[in-house]
Structures are given as C-alpha cells and as structure tokens.
C-alpha cells in the first residue's frame, strides 16, 4: 500500500508541475504579484484537490475490473463496432479529430446526467470548491470517475479507435480542463460559443440559480449553443460552490454522496411513515 501511495503521489505531482508553471505565468501576466499571493482558502482548496487526485488512482485496480467487465459486456451483447481495419484508411489527424468531437459529445451528455437527481450528489463534490483554481479540475469523487469511464468505454467500444488516436489528445484535453477552471476571467470573444473558456465555465460553477444547469460542455461550447444550455451574459463576479457545500473537508468530500443518499432515504422513509399513520 505504501508503494502504491508513493507511486500515485509521484504521478499526481508530476502531472501538476507543467500546468503549475503554465498557469502561474498566465496569472503573473494577468494579475502581477497578486497571482502568487496565495490565500489560506486557496491553499486549502489545492490540498484537497491534490489529495483526491492521489487517492482516486489508488482505486485504479478496482476500476480496471469494471472497465474489463463493461467491455466484455459490450462484446457479449453483439453491439455494433467499427471494424479496426476502417481506421487504416483514415489519416491519423482525422482519427484524432473524430475522437475529440465524439468524446466531447459524450462528455456533454454525461455531464448533464451528473446534474440530475441522485447523480448530482456525486458530481457535487466537484462543485464544492468555493475557491476556483486550475486544480479544481482534479476535484472529483471516485464514483464520478466511474460514471465517466463507462461512457468512454462504450464510446471507445463502438468507434474502436486505435490507441494512438485516443492517447494523442489526452494530455491536451487534460490541460484544457485545467485552463477552464482557472480563476481568471479569460474570454475569447465570439469564440466563447465554440470553445469552452474560463468565463464560460465560471458560469457553470456559479452559485447563482439563473446559471444552474447551464454550460455543460467540456471542450466545445457549441454543444450548449445547439442544445439550449448556453449562458455567458458577461464576467461572473459572484460566489462559487453551493449552499451546504462540504468545502475542503476531505472526509466529507469522500463520504458526501453516501451521506446525501442516506439522508434522502431517511427522508423518504419518514414521509412514507407519515402517509401510513392513521
């Protein structure tokens, strides 16, 4: 267990080094010295986010079992699958483009699913960060990772894209996800309706009822424009998070979905008892 923890910690920290340099430099350009005046709230947020990015990979062996079972189930049901030979006729750049568009389309709908009853309790962990920063992208409950992986596996099984086409874009997708979570109001003008930006994503994390259930896209904001969930009225200057958020309490973050489901079950049982009481 000690070796697994050290390995996960090393991998997570190594993955943070490049974005740390990139987003610190961006911050210095935008905010000057204020970019490196880190508040206690920001440091608490980063600690929790890094912890989750280390803890979740420790459960990777269990997730791999689920990955294998999901893929075997797909194959056993005889669901359609693109012949691998098909991709031999497609240029690598086009293969990568197809994968980027397809996986982002899946991300959009999985993200919308995560904002529905029951699933929200899992996704709320990600929205619990009240101090938005680029490490917020790592604040995910392991159950959210599982839900997303199921979507990816089904997509990958259907498209059957070669590994080089899938892996080539992974690092850029991760970096873009870091970028949209940065606290700075970065805006690309009319391109905000095409590409997800920090301003676009700030509204998604906004503690503002008018912004709830909007801006689900990870990479292409175009999905929100197409499906009527786009909202970027201007810079967002309000608070992030939601009422009753577990904040940076690591134990609460790990237990949050289970605690919420337990409360919901108890509430439903109380209502049932009231209805049955003569």
Unreliable residue stretches: none
Structural class: mainly alpha
What share of residues are in beta strands? under 5%
Helix content bin: 55-70%
What kind of sheet is the major sheet? none
Would you report the number of β strands? 0
Arithmetic mean pLDDT: 84
Q: How many domains make up the coordinates?
A: 1
Distance N to C terminus? 55 Å
Question: What sequence of helices (H) and strands (E) makes up the elements?
Answer: HHHHHHHHHHH
Radius of gyration in whole Å, from Cα? 20 Å
What does this structure look like?
- The chain is mostly helical and 278 residues long.
- The chain contains 11 helices and no strands.
Note the topology.
Blueprint: H1 2-31, H2 40-58, H3 60-76, H4 92-113, H5 120-127, H6 142-159, H7 163-167, H8 170-180, H9 198-205, H10 222-227, H11 250-276
Helix pairs in contact: 1-2, 3-6, 4-6, 5-11
Short characterization:
This protein is an all-alpha fold and 278 residues long. It contains eleven helices and no strands.
Task: Sum up the structure in keywords.
about 280 residues; mainly alpha; globular; about 0% strand
